[in-house]
Design goal:
The structure holds 2 protein chains of 2 kinds. Chain A is mainly α. In chain A, 75% of the residues lie in helices and 0% in strands. Chain A has one domain. Chain A is built from 8 helices and no strands. The longest helix of chain A is centred in the middle third of the chain and has 29 residues. Chain B has 19 helices and 4 strands. Chain B is mainly α. The chains are: A mainly alpha, B mainly alpha. Chains A and B meet through helix 6, helix 7 and helix 8 of A and helix 5, helix 6, helix 8 and helix 9 of B.
C-alpha cells in the first residue's frame, strides 16, 4: 500500500486537487457552487492528512483528519448552504472582475509562489509541492475575498485561506499538537457562525447582500 | 491563576441567566469586583516570581501580570460605566432587556479572552485567545445590531479584516514551531519559556519570515497602519464602554503578542531587523493617523485615530529598543490605557447629551457641564501629549531612547507627527469645549440624522442617581491619576515596568 501511494504520487495528486478546487472558485458563477468547491477542498485536505498519517504512522494525524472532515467537510458547508438560502441572494456571485481575468491572476499567483519558493528555506517532509500549493491556496483565497461582492463570498474566501493555512502548517511540521488544532478549529467554527449571522444581518439591514453598500463609514 | 480565568466565565453565565435588567448591571460589577479581589495577590506574586500552571501552558511573569492588571482595571471601570450607559440606552429605546443580558455576558467573555491572552505561555493558545477576542468583540460592536445599520457595517469590516490578518499570525506561529523542531529534534516546542531558552539557536532566516507574518497578523489587530482601516469604524460604532476596552487594552494585548515574539526573534536575527520593522510601522501609523486627526469631524473617530497614533508610539518605542525604549513603550501602554478610556467615557456622555458624534454639533461643554468639561479638558490635553499629563512623560521617554541611539531622522519625523496630532486633537476638542452652549439646538423632534443613523436626542442629563454618581467618581479618579502620573511615576509601577523590561530580555 505504501509503495503504491508513492509510486502513483497520490499525495501530489491530492494536493493539486486542493489547488484546483480553489482556482475553480474563480471560474464558477453561483454561490452554491462556491460552497461545493469548498466542501471538495476540505474533503481532499482531510484525505491528504489521512494518507500522510498512514505513511508516517502518527495517531494524532488521524484525529486531525477526522476533525477536519467533520468540521470543515460537513458542518461548515451545511451552515454555509443554510446562510445562502437564508440571505436569498440572487444566486449569482457577481465578482468585481470577470472570470477570465481572475483565472489569469490566479495562474500568475501560482507561478509567483512556485518561483519565489523554489530555493525555499524549508525542507518538507513528504512532498516537494505541498508548501508551495498551500501558500498559493492562501493567496488565491485572499484574492477572491478582495474581488468578491457578496458577503458570503468573503466568508468562503476566508475559509479557503484557513484550509491553505492548515495545509501549510501540516507540511511544515506534520501539524500542531491535537489540542491546539482543536482550539483553532473551535475558533474558526465560532468565527464562521458569527460571520454567517452578520451576513444575514447585512442582508436584512441593507436590503442587499452586496458589500458595496457598506460604504458609509470612512475617513 | 485558573480561578482568575473562571470568574469572568461564571459572571458571564450569571449575567445571561438573570432576567431583571435592573440587577444585571450590578451583578456584572460584582463579578468585576470579585475578579479584582482574586487577581491582586496573583498579580503581585507574579511580578516578584513567575508562576506556572497546567504543565506550563499557562504562565505568568511580570509582563503578563502588568498586562493583566490593565485588563482588570479596565474591566472594573467599564463595568461601572456600563451601568449608567446602558440604563440610558434602555431609556431611549436603543436596547432592550435581552440586549442588556447579552451585552453583559459578552463583556465578561471578552474580559476572559483578553485575560487568556495575557497568561498564555503556549504561542498557539495565545493565537487562539487573540482570535477569540476578535469574535467576541465583533459581536459586542454589533450589539443591538437590529437597530444600528452602521454597527453591522463596522462589525463586518472588523471581523473580516482582523480574522484575515490574524490568519497570517498563525502561519507565523507555525513557522516558529517548525524552526523549533529543527533545533530540538523530533518534537517542536511552542511554549514561550522554552522557545526563549533556545532562541539564540533558531534559524535566523526562518525566524525573520515568522516575525514578518506575526507582525502583519498581530499588527492588524493592534491597529498599526496600513491595516488599521477597521479601527476607526469599530471604535466609533461600538458602545462607549466597549470602545474604551477596545482602545485601552485590546490593541495592547495584540501588541503584547508582538513583544513576546520580538524577544524570541531578536537573539538569532539581531536587534536591527525587528527594530527597523517596528520603527517603520510605528512611524507609518503615526503619520497616517496624524493626517486623519487633522481633518476629522467626528470626535469618536478622532479618538480612534488617536489610538492608532499611540499604538504607533508604542511600536516605535519597542522598535528603538534598549532599556529606555521598551520602558517608554510599556509606560505608554499604561498611560494610554487610562487616558483613552477616560476620553471614550466622556465622549459617551457628550454623545448622550448632544445626540451627535459630529464635532460641529457640540459646543460649550465646559460651560454647560463643568465637571464633564473639565475631565474632557484634562483628557484631551493628556492625549495630545502635553505636559504635565501622563502621556507626555512616556512620549518623552521614547524620545529620549531615540536620542540615546542617535536616530535623528526617526526623532524628527516623530516630533513632526506629535505636533500635528497636538494641534488636531486640541482644535477638535477645543471647538467642543468652548463657545456657547447649544444643547437646545432644534433638531427635528429631538432627533438628528447623521449618515443614515438616527440618534434620539436626550432631553434630560443621563444617568442620575447611583449609576451617575459611580460613573462620575471613576471618571474623576481616572482624571486625577492622569494628572498624578504626569508628575511622577510611583515606585511600584516603576519597579514593575523595570522587571517587565528584564523579562523581555533587555538589560
Amino acid at each position: 500500500m505504501k509503495n503504491w501511494i508513492q509510486a502513483f504520487s497520490i499525495i501530489d495528486f491530492i494536493s493539486v486537487g486542493i489547488l484546483l478546487t480553489v482556482i475553480a472558485m474563480n471560474a464558477l458563477k453561483r454561490l452554491e457552487s462556491y460552497v461545493r468547491a469548498y466542501t471538495l477542498n476540505s474533503w481532499l485536505l482531510s484525505s491528504l492528512i489521512a494518507i500522510v498519517a498512514f505513511m508516517v504512522g502518527e495517531t494524532h494525524l488521524y484525529v486531525a483528519s477526522v476533525t477536519t472532515l467533520v468540521s470543515k467537510g460537513i458542518v461548515i458547508p451545511w451552515f454555509l448552504r443554510k446562510i445562502v438560502r437564508q440571505t436569498k441572494v440572487t444566486h449569482d456571485a457577481e465578482p468585481y472582475i470577470s472570470n477570465t481575468l481572475s483565472l489569469t491572476i490566479s495562474g500568475i499567483l501560482v507561478a509567483v509562489v512556485y518561483t519565489s519558493l523554489s530555493q525555499g528555506i524549508f525542507v518538507t517532509g513528504f512532498s516537494k509541492n505541498v508548501l508551495q500549493i498551500s501558500i498559493a491556496v492562501i493567496l488565491i483565497g485572499l484574492f477572491s475575498m478582495i474581488t468578491g461582492r457578496k458577503a458570503i463570498t468573503q466568508v468562503i474566501g476566508l475559509l479557503f485561506m484557513e484550509n491553505g493555512l492548515f495545509l501549510a502548517g501540516f507540511s511544515l511540521t506534520f501539524g500542531m499538537p491535537v489540542i491546539i488544532e482543536l482550539g483553532i478549529l473551535f475558533d474558526m467554527l465560532m468565527g464562521v457562525i458569527i460571520l454567517g449571522i452578520f451576513a444575514v444581518q447585512i442582508k436584512r439591514v441593507f436590503i442587499s447582500s452586496d458589500l458595496d453598500k457598506l460604504t458609509t463609514l470612512k475617513g | 491563576m485558573i480561578e482568575i480565568l473562571l470568574i469572568p466565565i461564571v459572571t458571564a453565565a450569571i449575567c445571561y441567566a438573570l432576567k431583571n435588567c435592573k440587577v444585571v448591571g450590578y451583578m456584572s460589577l460584582a463579578g468585576a469586583v470579585v475578579l479584582t479581589g482574586f487577581s491582586v495577590p496573583v498579580i503581585l506574586a507574579s511580578i516578584s516570581h513567575p508562576i506556572e500552571t497546567l504543565g506550563g501552558v499557562l504562565y505568568m511573569d511580570a509582563l503578563s501580570g502588568y498586562m493583566m492588571a490593565l485588563v482588570i482595571f479596565l474591566c472594573l471601570v467599564s463595568a461601572i460605566y456600563s451601568i449608567g450607559y446602558l440604563e440610558h440606552e434602555l431609556k431611549v429605546g436603543l436596547t432592550d432587556t435581552a440586549g442588556m443580558r447579552r451585552y453583559y455576558a459578552l463583556l465578561h467573555l471578552f474580559i476572559f479572552t483578553m485575560l487568556l491572552v495575557t497568561v498564555s505561555n503556549n504561542l498557539a493558545l495565545m493565537w487562539i485567545a487573540v482570535e477569540a477576542t476578535t469574535i467576541v468583540s465583533a459581536v459586542l460592536i454589533g450589539f443591538g445590531f437590529r437597530k444600528r445599520a452602521l454597527a453591522v457595517e463596522a462589525a463586518w469590516k472588523y471581523i473580516i479584516l482582523c480574522t484575515v490578518g490574524i490568519t497570517f499570525a498563525l502561519l507565523g506561529t507555525f513557522i516558529t514551531y517548525y524552526a523549533s523542531t529543527v533545533v530540538t529534534g523530533a518534537e517542536g516546542v511552542l511554549n514561550w519559556t522554552e522557545l526563549k531558552g533556545i532562541a539564540g539557536r533558531l534559524n535566523p532566516s526562518t525566524m525573520k519570515l515568522a516575525f514578518i507574518f506575526v507582525l502583519v497578523g498581530y499588527g492588524t489587530k493592534a491597529g498599526l497602519a496600513p491595516v488599521h482601516n477597521w479601527l476607526p469604524d469599530a471604535h466609533s460604532q461600538a458602545p462607549s464602554p466597549i470602545s474604551a476596552l477596545l482602545s485601552g487594552i485590546l490593541l495592547n494585548t495584540a501588541f503584547y503578542g508582538i513583544m513576546r515574539f520580538v524577544s524570541l526573534v531578536e537573539p538569532s536575527t539581531g536587534e536591527a531587523f525587528t527594530g527597523n520593522l517596528l520603527i517603520v510601522f510605528g512611524l507609518l501609523s503615526m503619520g497616517i493617523s496624524s493626517v486623519f486627526i487633522l481633518v476629522q469631524d467626528n470626535y469618536k473617530r478622532l479618538l480612534a485615530y488617536s489610538s492608532i497614533e499611540h499604538m504607533g508610539i508604542i511600536s516605535l518605542g519597542t522598535g528603538i529598543g534598549g532599556f529606555a525604549g521598551i520602558y517608554g513603550a510599556l509606560l505608554h501602554i499604561l498611560n494610554h490605557a487610562i487616558s483613552k478610556p477616560l476620553m471614550f467615557f466622556a465622549s459617551g456622555k457628550i454623545q448622550a447629551q448632544f445626540g451627535s458624534t459630529r464635532i460641529e454639533n457640540v459646543s460649550g461643554v465646559l460651560s454647560s457641564m463643568p465637571l464633564l468639561g473639565t475631565i474632557t479638558f484634562i483628557g484631551a490635553f493628556s492625549l495630545a501629549g502635553s505636559p504635565p499629563f501622563n502621556i507626555f512623560l512616556s512620549e518623552f521617554t521614547v524620545l529620549k531612547a531615540g536620542v540615546d541611539k542617535g536616530l535623528w531622522f526617526v526623532i524628527g519625523l516623530f516630533l513632526v507627527f506629535v505636533v500635528i496630532v497636538f494641534y488636531g486633537i486640541l482644535s477638535g476638542f477645543g471647538k467642543m469645549l468652548f463657545g456657547k452652549a447649544t444643547e437646545q439646538k432644534n433638531g427635528a423632534a429631538g432627533e438628528q440624522v447623521t449618515g443614515g443613523l438616527v440618534m434620539p436626542k436626550h432631553q434630560e442629563s443621563p444617568a442620575y442617581g447611583l449609576p451617575g454618581f459611580m460613573t462620575d467618581t471613576i471618571m474623576i479618579a481616572m482624571a486625577l491619576s492622569v494628572v498624578f502620573l504626569g508628575v511622577t511615576v510611583p515606585d511600584f509601577i516603576d519597579n514593575t515596568i523595570r522587571t517587565c523590561v528584564h523579562v523581555l530580555g533587555v538589560r
